[in-house]
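Model: Ready when you are.
Researcher: Fold this.
Model:
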Amino acid sequence: MWKIFLATLIIISFSKVKSQNQLPDFSVEDVGNNKVRISWINPFGEVCIQLTAQSSFDSLRGFKTIFSTESPQLPQNGFVYTPPFKGKFYYRISYILSGNAFYFSHSKIPVGAGLLQGPEQLLEKNEATRIITIRKYDSIVAQIFYSAYRSFKDSMVRNTKDTLFIVSQDEIIIKPFNPYNSYKPSVYVVTNPDGFIEIKLPDASMKNYKLIFFDNGRKLFTINHITDGDLVIDKSNFQHAGWFSFELYEDDKLKERNKILLQKDF
């Protein structure tokens, strides 16, 4: 199916489209009074299963989660953030798409409201001649103009379950959908805005819950007799960042078997 989209888009790829702040691009605006507005356009729809905003003192490491949206699939979203103190902060967006592929945007510093930011300015100037290389596995599928790539990406999201993995600003890899890797986030074991794993069991005091975490199939630890309806687990219990599977039992009966991503603060 995507081959038909690609053939059509190559024909129309010479038409120029005005740049928008679509993920992995986003906007960070200084709105005064030590506040910044972070916003984005999400072209992935229901394929986007988790989205967080992060901040750091530099542009490469030390990033910490400052916001986690409860509706990552919304086409347009944003929030206003108040840094803990005045200073130079960098911001970026992290998001996860179906198939467990996760991405990080480029880091940005706030600019005055309405002004184009550095990477966007460069994109606006070079959009007419910018070429995107699209690969599938180790083979080059096509090389198209950026304006056509945006339409191709939208068509992929609407009409296929394949994933587009962003290797660099000018290189994309198509990862065919694998139904065995499909992932639906848990409503009981979630990641909170601070990046910690949180257990939400409103009726915990009335039932007998048990939660077991696994690391690559090896039992990591067990929480017996959970009575707190909202319990946060310290990251030190997991030893490293990455995916962890879990089994949630209610009255000794399996209620859910799922997995969760613990992101690294870096």
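Researcher: Now this one.
Model:
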Amino acid sequence: MTRIILIVSGKGGVGKTTLASNLSCALAELGEDVIAVDANLTTPNLGLHTGMHLTPHTLHDVLRGKADLGDAVYTHPSGFRIIPASMSINDLTGADPSKLSNVTMNLLGKADYVIIDSAAGLGNETVSAIAATDEVIIVVNPNVPSVADALKAAELARKLGKKVMGVVVNRRSRKSHELSSGEIEAMIEAPVIAEIPEDSAIAESVAAKQPVVEYDMHSPAAVEIRRLAHELAGEKFTYKKPLRLTLLEKLVGWVGR
């Protein structure tokens, strides 16, 4: 059975695309068949995050009736598949977001997971993306404005009869001013299912156009995203931090070459 999961928030810049690309990659590592869809039609970034932003066909072409769905599906080197959106503002004309439901319906049975990266805000694109999905993951940063906006997204999802799986707290730095997980859960009325720490490896991986779970699998953010992927897949997650060599050990290794 295909699980269709939307990554959504109440505002932009909280880390939806980072989660969508890395969760797709981490699930593929577990042997799951995954298709990631960039449903952010106005400001798409999934292709940029994965180095697949200059493809011949995009979701825009599908929604405009200019290409078949199969023509817009591309395989990432890590194993998951991507339906990117167009970076060109010219392709916005005629791209009807209400047709997203047709896209997801046509993906049923073609993957284990369809991970959808939604647009920022709660406009027509996001409403259409919520309508086209079954389950929703809410992404927030640990501050009041982010959580307050995400609450609206959660309420909209529930109003449309969708299951809110939980909240992913992104860019957690453990500062005293940050909202606690308990406070976030109380506001959104959904469990916190992951807390991704502030991690410089994320920015580095985006610059490298590579998911951080591949770019630096031992970085704190990558470990937490992989843990979440295991949880979604019903797999046990164990992680053993690699031992750091002492300077003496490094010198011994160098001399022994």
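Researcher: Key takeaway?
Model: The mean pLDDT is 94.
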